[in-house]
Amino acid sequence: MQNEFLNLGPQTARATILFAHGAGAPMDSPAMTAIAGALAEQSLRVVRFEFSYMAARRTEGSRKPPPRAEKLISEYLDAIEALDVDGPLIIGGKSMGGRVASMVADELFKADRIAGLLCVGYPFHPIGKPEILRTEHLQHLQTPTLICQGTRDQFGSKDEVSGYEISSAIQMKWFEDGDHDLKPRKRISDFTHADHITSMGVTVSAWVEGLVG
Questions:
Q1: Would you say 31 and 181 are in contact if contact means Cβ atoms under 8 Å apart?
Q2: What class is the 2-212 domain?
Q3: Distance between start and end Cα atoms, the chain
Q4: pTM (whole model) above 0.90
Q5: Mind giving me the DSSP string for 93-125?
Q6: 2-8 and 45-50: which strand pairing?
């Protein structure tokens, strides 16, 4: 774990969002940068960090595959400790990053250390394997949670997720025709990717306001 953070948004924000990357792309990927920018536009502070396997890709030029999500829990907790935030903290991430955050959320929420959980493109199942669900812990989640998901996300579409048993603490925000990055198809949708990213920022801002005022 390399405790190097990318900060965006005001230091005096009403909440800080600690946001981890997905399995295959770093903290400064276009998708991560767009998400962070949209949240910062809403006067939220967004702090990105990288798991050690991803940081090693930069220094070693290696293409190490990501470990199992469970193996990254300690690194996420280390990042929280290193950040040492003042004021309300929301944890989360893109895809796998959000999944790892979801695994530690309840323990931290019960200890009054976080205010909520934010996931963008939650990986409800591996691509092409809808029978392998990653939802068991989501059935009992007590942390206030917002999941922003494209309706045609290959890791969990609207049609699929509507049939899952998930906790009432989880709010789903669907983005029409969006993929895993919330990107709609140009010829089919009335929305652009930029529209969805902006809308995501506005949605998160309103949700945060409900949590922390």
A1: yes
A2: alpha beta
A3: 33
A4: yes
A5: EETHHHHHHHHHHHHHHHTT--SEEEEES--SS
A6: antiparallel
The tens digit of pLDDT for each residue in 26-81 reads 999 999 999 999 999 999 999 999 999 999 998 887 787 899 999 999 999 999 99
C-alpha angle 107-111-112 in degrees, rounded to nearest 5:
120
Identity of the residue numbered 44: L
Alpha-carbon distance of 77 to 195, in angstroms, equals: 33
**For residues 181, 93, 197 and 194, what is the CA-based torsion angle, rounded to 10 degrees?**
-50
List the 145-150 sheet strands across, edge first: 2-8, 45-50, 16-20, 89-94, 116-120, 145-150, 170-175
